[in-house]
């Protein structure tokens, strides 16, 4: 379903990135990295009222092959989901659902007392869950 | 020249396709209102000469003209250096695409060249002929030849210079344009006004066209077409209502364009609105889009006039901004503020053209006219990267530039588009354009223009949206164009601070340059762009900064740097490739897996094989400096230790620094040592010193993190401060094994040496590994070592053989050589120590010798002796010279077995002396005093009972009696610590402190030592001794049992004349006549004792009975002085002296040794008794014995008992006192004398009758008994030390009363009784 899911820390350091096509991982990293500008811009706009802030940032940008969606948590951790442009069946609501689930997974992962905030997410459980989410059977 | 033209033509020839193939990426909305002029350099390019002219021409970008009705018009010129001809075809669609003017600038030296320039000008005219209104040619002729005639002519008539140029050279007949001639060095003062004229000429033509257009009848107008539309309208009914409307609309739009260019913005606005409505009604989407864009352009011209000034500058300033803050800072600061600032400063007059601003404009423009000169381009790049000025400052300088504001914000026309409307209009326009495949270029340009407006409006998200939309436009273009598009996008993203996006596209552009299948991969451009995208990925060229920040996406950074390395390698710039590879290893080491690490290391090795890396900055052609990268952590330094010099070379202060004077053994308060506290603060300050010209060492522990052997060569210390000569070191490091490496070097100067790290050469890269760059290891940034002036070095030799082992004394590390010697006790020897000054230049000026040993100071002084004066006299020692000095060694030992005072007392109590008393003591010592030395060791005793092993053991116990020593008087304690029975080892160090030269003045020296191993063998041993009365009263006999403990026969010389031979391990008894201790000495000793006692009393000592017996001490020293026993091992020349020092005398012995205080005058039968005189009397006859006592001493004697005893001496050691049947005494034989005053005499007379004949002896003695009551000293103890005299007398008395003395008349009276 999704092509690539990335979790990026509040200082824009990559915390987690997975993709269904490992061949393209580096390329996708470049795309995800480039998307951060828009994420930051959108965060900046939503600065005024944090409580009413919409976590879902919507479509950040799209390329010939990919559509890139963003989501930012209240702790400024960013989720980026890359979706294949050819996949027209995917509605925006479904993307939102992916983000919601991802947020829950992330929260679970950082609740681990042994996890140091800001460190890359190495939890296998998280990885398995995200892989499942990415393949659309979460 | 041909080549230059060819290049131009090839540029121009790119557009043979029907549609506009090349988007004009530089275009902004404001260009809709500009007159397009081609400014072209012709002829052989001489950029530097023409540059000034270009600059001048460009400065005239704006003129003001009053139109026919007197209204002022503001006309803007846009100079381009290149214009595809087919763009002119779009001139109907958007008039600003039409090239209206032509200016060529050329340089010629002769007529032929001038002809060529004219030809080129004409050919350009022809090429753009369809749209060209006017053209000018600017020719720079050769400088006037330095001919006198010409010079004179110039002086006489300075004005007609240009005319004469024109005279000299004539333009060809077919050259119809207006030409300006200038000398090469001419200031071209009138050039600007001429260009202004040219601009106004263009305006008037344009104005006439506009008027013409505006006067056209609505029903007569023809259809204006975009180039690709021609086919579409073939065969259509042009007279239909729809088409009429279309025609009118398009003409109206065209008129609006012209009005905009002619400075009538407001008219243009309303015309655009009308045209928009008209065309929308007929569904002419393309032209609707055009009107919408026109509306936006007209509004932008009114709203954002400042964009004219900053349009190109933004690019530069944002680049700088990107350089300073990699993370995006909010872009508002340069957007919102500018508009207001500009508008408020609009009133500035046109004359105040800031030359700086103009220059800036020129340089920024020149980036787009790269055909003029590539030099200019590079200059722009470098200036952009070199001077980090913020955008606000650059725009504020520009605010002085003239901006003709016809319209203030307050008086803007009502139909103007509002700021937010512009965006939506652009969006609409783009949608309209996107309906036409051939309008892709227009669409792209519109998007770019829109994004530029949005940048001005501070709406980055919209910018991103427009830029993103460009990517969708399907434009068939060459790869070069595509790259160009990426670059322009990059630039715009950078302007809004989207560094990551910018970097993304920059990288794409870089990859496009060299993508597979590309005919001519341009690695140079690729490399440049890659480098440019560094900031977006939070990389920077300085590895230290990257390590400091430790931000960004490691995988992307690694990939980027790797691509960069590839580009550099393909460029053939292997030094760069090596540098970047080193950079990669240094900065991304922690982010790489183990296999990656070793792969990269191997790659680096391969790269550096082509070009070795060294830690110097590399400068690229465009001025970019690539800072050095160092393999700081390859190998990984675990620790670094600065080593002190070896102990014997270590410098030290000649005078030891003053110790803390506090009253405490330890205190945290430092009383007077401020400097020490300062030193502690300096963590990196090394506590010890290095010496100039002395090899110094630093130990580094390295670990090789790579899985293969890592050879590290040419390791040296990196230092600052004083000159330091570092010695290279090479090592091969095994994987993962920490290895110690010693780095050596010699400081050449004195002062402070700053150790910063070390340099390595590994994997083909030279690196400077500085401590401050080593992270996570808590190293100080440097180590500071003080280097003191050079000190001389000496070599020390001794004449004695060396020992196999060095001593284990403290500070054994300074020992440089050793010497061993074996001596018999009492033997003397000497040793020559040779000191050679090894230094090349320095004299040895200071030498201090002292001796340290494991024996006490007193004894040591006796053993070792150096003539220091003689030694001092030999200084200084010149370089390479040597001196020697003698060390005298005397085998000092204790030759006597000491007796503790306790035994002395008990001995005295028996009232006996001589060898006869020995058995008593043997029992005593057997009763538990194992440590008690005793006379058990008497050789007589041994002779008597040789088999008695129990006595043997006691004997040996007696020999090692050390415990008794503590009871000895202080003076005798030292020597007695030597055990004389076994061989004894003495370890000593002769320490030499030496210095010379400057270091001496600085107060430094070195210390080295010779270790002495002295073995003392026992020689003669006095096992027991006694004191016997001699034949004369002034002497006594010292009887000694001397045993020879050597393995050889010993000849003993005990008096001046007497010799005795003793076999090995044998002993013999010798009597030695010694003079008695004189009365004066005794008196002095008494006085000394009194003083001593008094002192002790003051110290509240209470142990009176342990008071030392000064008299016994005196006697002991007296004997030691008088008696010297010389021994010689027969058959050898080994000889020595045994001294009797430390001999312990019992009380009775003391009494014998010292002169008696009592003087005896005895007469027998009225004849005075002489020593050894024969007294004869007969049996039964009464003999009168008269005894007269005189107190010779200084104090009175108390409690004296005079006793007379007769006995028979059997001369076999037995004495018979039971003579009741043989002799009788009339009158008491015991007389008590309570007090005998000084010089007082006592007389006692008695009669003796012998019953049997025989030889009798009479012992006459006087005993002083201790008093029964408490000694008076107890009382004095509690007395304050008031009157010394009183105390003294009390003490004296107490002393005498305590001690039991026996004074005998010597020799005993011998009476021979004969028969009648």
* Beta-strand content bin of chain A: 15-25%
The stretches of 5 or more residues of chain A where confidence is low (pLDDT under 50) are: none
CATH architecture of the largest domain in chain B: Alpha Horseshoe
Helix share, percent of chain A: 25-40%
CATH topology call of the largest domain in chain B: Serine Threonine Protein Phosphatase 5, Tetratricopeptide repeat
Summarize the model shown.
The complex is a heterodimer of chains A (138) and B (1316). Chain A is α+β, with helices and mostly antiparallel strands and 138 residues long.
Please tell me about this protein's structure.
Chain A: Pfam families: Sedlin_N. The complex is a heterodimer of chains A (138) and B (1316). Chain A is an alpha+beta fold and 138 residues long. Chain A has one domain (2-135): Beta-Lactamase. Chain A has 3 helices and 5 strands. A 5-stranded antiparallel sheet of chain A has the order 2-1-5-4-3, sandwiched between helices. The termini of chain A are close together. The model of chain A has no long low-confidence stretch (mean pLDDT 82). Chain B has 1316 residues and is α+β, with helices and mostly antiparallel strands. In chain B, strand 7 and strand 8 form a beta hairpin. Chain B is 37% helix and 25% strand. In chain B, the strands form 10 sheets. In chain B, strands 37, 39, 40, 42, 44, 45 and 46 form a 7-stranded mixed sheet that branches. Chain B folds into 6 domains: 2-215, Rossmann fold, CATH 3.40.50; 334-361 and 401-626, Serine Threonine Protein Phosphatase 5, Tetratricopeptide repeat (Alpha Horseshoe); 636-657 and 674-788, Sandwich (Immunoglobulin-like), CATH 2.60.40.10; 794-887 and 988-1009, Immunoglobulin-like, CATH 2.60.40; 901-911 and 923-979 and 1019-1139, no CATH class; 1156-1314, Immunoglobulins (Immunoglobulin-like, Sandwich), CATH 2.60.40. Classes of the chains: A alpha+beta (138), B alpha+beta (1316). At the A-B interface, helix 1 of A face helix 19, helix 21 and helix 24 of B.
